Every structure is written in structure tokens, then in C-alpha cells.
Amino acid sequence: MTEALLEARDLTKDYGAARALDGMSFRVGAGEILCLLGANGAGKTTTINLFLGFTAPTSGAALVAGREVAAEPEAARALLGYVAEVVSLYPTLSGAENLAFFCDLAGRPADPAQRDAILARLRFPQGAINRPAGEYSKGMRQKLGLAIALMKDARAILLDEPLSGLDPAAANDLVEVLRETAAGGTALLISTHDIFRAKDVATRIGIMRHGRMVDMIDPAGLSGDELDRLYLTHMAERAA
Amino acid sequence: MSAIAAKDWREFVRDRRLVIAAGLMLVLALLALALSWQRVASHEADRAAAEAGDRQTWLEQGEQNPHGAAHFASWAFRPLTPTALIDPGATPYAPTAIWLEAHSRNTGNGRPIEDRAATLDLGEFSLAWVLQTLAPLLVFVLAAGLVARERERGTLRLMLASGAKAEAIVRAKAGGLARIMLAITAPLALAGAAAVLLAPAGMTGDQALRLVLLGGAYALWLGLFLAIGVAVSALAGRTDRAMLVLAGVWLIAVPLGPRLAGTIADIAAPNSDARAFWAQMDADFKNGLPGDPDAKTRSAALKEATLAKYGAASLEELPVSWDGVSLDASERYGYKVFDRRFAELHAEQDSQRAAMRLAALVSPLAAFQNVSAGLAGTDLAHHRHFTDAAEAHRRVAVNQLNADLIANGAGKTYEGYNADRRLWEAVPAFAYAPPGVGVLAGAWLLDLAILLAWCLGGVGLLVFAGRRLAREGA
């Protein structure tokens, strides 16, 4: 494996008496897309929060390009892009203003040519970038969120349920750009409970249950039957 | 972090919060200034007319004995300086005209503050009232969501993930709100400055300095609430919770603080009974101050000393007016009594002021009101300066009239000698020069120090909020 841009070392997180993450370990190198697959409450979002430094681990460590997040949260964040499940934007500001604002915060003022190229890759509707973000659909917000992360030229991008609630066309647009981004050498960590999208986009799939990484799968060799079995074993079981 | 301040500015402009807040404040400020202008202009017009009439009446009183003239007397009118347009301070409750006459140190008719409670609990409606009571509430309303709303809508996570530091976000939010408040209050400041510059009493260098210092003091005042507001927004997590906390802070700091200060002053240093105060002075005249002989003994001693001074065997042989000498001595003993008892009264008022400062532990307004009124020249110290000047003038005039009676009334009762216009013209008219801002600064410097301590506390809270946000994340 190439240098690990994202690494979880025996990562454990307790919230009071409840254990949200239990000794999880993984590495994501440049060009890899690791999908964390699991039901709600499996610990996917907690993992992302630990990499962002929004919460501190009870034990273990999250590292970004070798930097321990708990010790150097701001230095770690400087290397990361982040796309939330629901990308929050300022409704009275245009998409361009939102994008420019977050680029300024990242210390990389938005270059209009780079911005337009990224928006074109994302098939962001032409002209919509100057409309107030309050008028955007969820798909447009997710695309703009990813554009913010891409404008940062981050070495790794964390995506929390990025495809949730998107129409198929918008989801396909995003998946395509995610693949291109990874191919450019960026490490992607995606949390999802959509096993079929995970197979579609990931280079590896980590199955999470009750805060543990119970399996790590290469989706390339996954048959339709095995996908059904995985779904029934790890996802449908939570309804029981 | 100027990007955050610029973004906040844009949001405040686009969702019209800035226009609504600025419009509301401007309307209130203009209304307050208009009412203050009417009050001050009317007072100054009345004062000018009354002063001219009073002097004319004094000069044209005709021939009469000087002691009668001392009782005929005159008025001392207090001019209202232009900065009284900004903050009337104690003016509504303090006398602006004092009757100057022999034997009495009149205090003038101030209006009991209790009479105002039913109409306006927090003080006279003025630009100072708007900035002291409503502006902090506006700051809190604008500040409550500054950080909390970012957290609620998820943009705080994105800001942090983008690379912004938590402490820098909190600092930038405070800076951004300062810029917004500057835009809201700048028209108020300009309107206030214009009113002061155009005021009927005319502008002086001291008034200009007071205006500048008032601007600085109010910047500190609003800066304090700004720091508290942004810090609470960062600490509370949710806008509604922040708003609730800030409403509580405002209630304690603004409406309740001055009331609490009044209650503390009542308990710690209760007011003397006015009748007892004057009765004590009557007794002092009659019985003498502690260690002094009574009036009868003083009179006998004076008679003996005067006869010895002029080598006379009887009062009839004196080359000066015995009535004049006697009146002069009585008057001068009165000065001694007044000086002592008024010093005690002033000490009591100072004790009340000191006790009121205790309320500044929970309400910075208790201290800031004194700073504002002190800078505007309308606090109790300035009113005392005026009454002291009036008393000093009264003594000069009465001494002059008694000296004339002593010199020219020999062998007559005081009623048997009449002076004329030449003497009345020799007695100077009362001309009051308000003190410069530094002269009475001692009355409010401690309050300014208290305000600065609050501001330091506010900055400390802001720093703490930033650090906690950094520790706890979004």
C-alpha cells in the first residue's frame, strides 16, 4: 500500500457508558476509496468526526498523512476536505459566494477558472452558481459541497452519506467525479448505508457493526449473490 | 478571518436585519434628540430671559437698606451645556435655579426621583437612554445566533473543516458584529454630534472633548455587550438558549441594576430627613456648633470685641453700623454652619454613591450611568459644583451689602440707611462657568475603572468561549 493518508489505529470512542467505536483500525492510501458500510448507529459518522477532530478518541488514534488529529486538529483539517450528508450553505449568499467564503477560510482564494472547471465536471447547472443557495436542490447542494472540498486540493476527503437522498442522475454525477478525484491521488473515506452504491464507487468496503470493523471486502470480486448476503447479514439484520 | 466578518455583513444586509435594526435605532435616537433639544432649548431660552429680567429687577429695586436688598436678592440660573442633549443625567431631578438671599443657603427645588417612576422607570428618554438600555438589547438580539446558528445549520462544521480555527471564528464574529454595530450606531453618533454642535448654548473646546470621550465611553459600553453576546452564542450551542441567557443578562444588567443600586443605597446610607436637616441648622445657629458658644454668648462677645476694636464705650459711639457688624457676624457664622452641615450632606450622598457601586457587581449600568452623566456634565458632582458656585456668589454679594451697611450706617438702625443703584451695580451678576471635563473626573473615574473591569471580563469570556469551542468542536 502507498502512504496512508487516513489511518485509524485501534480507534475507540465512548459516549458515557455507550461504546460508539470499538478498536477500529484501517488505512486509506492515495487513490483509494474506502466505503464504511453499516446501519445507522454503526459508528460511521463517529469515525468521520474523529478524523475531523470534532471529538476526541477515548483511546487509539486517527491520523491524517501521519499527523495525529487529536494532537494537531487544525493541521490535520488543513489536509482534509469534508462533505456532510446535508451540505449546509448560507441561503442568502449565492453559490459562488458560499464557495468563495469556504475557500477563503481554507486559505486558498477561489480561482474562477478552477471553480468553473470543477463545476463543469460535477455537471452543476450553468448559471445557477450565481443564484442564492437557498434556492438549491439537495443534489445541487451536495455538488457544491464536493466542489468546496475539491477547490481545497485536499489530500483526503471525508464524505458522510454524500449520496443519501439524491436522484439517480445526481448520484451518478457525484460517483463519477469521486472516482476521477481518487484517480488523481486523493484518498476518499465515504460513510454510507447504501451497499449497492458502495460497490459502485469503492475500492474497498469496510463493514461496520456496533462500532467494530467486522469485515473488509474488495468489491471488485463481489458477485450479486454475495452482495445480497452482505446486505441481509449486515444491513437488514438491524430491523430484526 | 475578515472573510467571516464580510460574510456576516453580507447576510445581515441581505436578510434586512441591518436595515431594520439601524432604522429602529435611528428613529428612536432622532425622537430622543428632538425631545432633548426641545427641553434644553426651552430651558436656555427661559434662563436667558429670566437672567436678564432678574438683573434688571435687581438694578431697579430703588433705594433701600442693603440688608433689605440682601433679602430682595436674586436668582442663580444653571446653564444646560450642549452635551446635556446627549445625557440629561441628574438634570431632571436637580435644581437649575437657586434663590440667593441673606441667611439662607437655599438648595433649589429638585424633583423627587420617585415622581418619575410611573412614567419612565429607567430614566429620562434621551439618546443616552436609547444607548444605555435599548442598544445592549439590540446587540444581544443580533449576537445570539452569530455562532449558535452556524452550529445549528451545520455551517460551523464546514467552517472548521475548511481550516478556520475555533478561537479565530469567535474573534471574527465579534469583529464582524462590531462592524455591524458601527454601521447601526454611526448615524446616531452623527445625529448626536450635530445636535451638540448646533446647540443653543454654543460649542466650546471642552464640550468637543466631552463629545469625543462620550463616544469612546459608549463604544466601550456596547463593546462589553458585544463580547458577552458573542461568547454566550458560542457557549450556548443553540440560538434559542443563547437568546434566553442573554435576555436574562440584559434584565439583570439594565432594568434591574439601577433599581438594585437604589435599594442598596437606601439600606447602606439612608437619606436624611429634610426637615431634620434644616432644624439641625437652626439649632446650630441658636446653640452653636459643637465647641462653639450659643448665639447670645457669641453676640455678647462680638459686642465686647467691636467696642474694644474701636475704643468705644457704647454702641452709639461706634464709627460703624452695629447692625451691620452684627448681621455680618451672624452671616459668617452661618457660612460655618452651612459648610459643616452641607459637607455632611455631601458625604452622605457620596456614601450613597459608593454603596450604589456595589450593584455594579451584577450591573455595569450602575457604574456606566455615572460615567456617561459625568462626561456629559450632568451628574450630581456637576450639580454640586453649580450649587457651590451659587453659594460662593451669594456670600460675595451678601458680604458686599453688609460691608456697605457697616461703613455707611453708623448711628442708625439698619433700616435707617438706604443704598441706591450705585451699590446694586457694584454687586456682580452671577456668572456660572461650567467646569472642564477633568475638574470633576474624580466623581466617575472609579466607575470608569469598573466599566473597564467589566470589559476585561467580557474579553475574557470571549477568549474562554473560543477555547471551549476549539476543545469541544462543532
Give an account of the 3D structure.
- The complex is a heterodimer of chains A (240) and B (474).
- With 240 residues, chain A is of the alpha/beta class.
- Chain A has 8 helices and 10 strands.
- Helices cover 35% and strands 27% of the residues of chain A.
- In chain A, strands 6-7-8-3-9-10 form a 6-stranded mixed sheet, sandwiched between helices. Chain A has a 4-stranded antiparallel sheet with strand order 2-1-4-5.
- In chain A, α3 (95-105) packs parallel to α5 (138-151) and α4 (112-121) packs across α5.
- The radius of gyration of chain A is 18 Å and the shape is globular.
- Chain B contains 15 helices and 2 strands.
- Chain B is elongated, with a radius of gyration of 29 Å.
- In chain B, α1 (2-14) crosses α6.
- The longest helix of chain B is centred in the N-terminal third of the chain and has 43 residues, at 17-59.
- Chain B has 474 residues and is mostly helical.
- The chains are: A alpha/beta (240), B mainly alpha (474).
List strands and helices in order, with pairings.
The complex is a heterodimer of chains A (240) and B (474).
Chain A: E1 4-15, E2 18-29, E3 33-38, H1 44-52, E4 59-64, E5 67-68, H2 73-77, E6 80-83, H3 95-105, H4 112-121, H5 138-151, E7 156-160, H6 168-183, E8 187-192, H7 195-201, E9 204-209, E10 212-217, H8 224-235
Parallel strand pairs in A: 3-8, 3-9, 6-7, 7-8
Antiparallel strand pairs in A: 1-2, 1-4, 4-5, 9-10
Chain B: H1 2-14, H2 17-59, H3 66-72, E1 74-77, E2 97-100, H4 127-153, H5 155-162, H6 166-197, H7 205-236, H8 239-268, H9 274-287, H10 295-310, H11 322-356, H12 364-376, H13 380-408, H14 421-426, H15 445-472
Antiparallel strand pairs in B: 1-2
Helix pairs in contact in B: 1-6, 2-4, 2-6, 3-13, 4-6, 4-7, 4-8, 6-7, 6-15, 7-8, 7-12, 7-15, 8-11, 9-11, 10-11, 11-13, 12-15
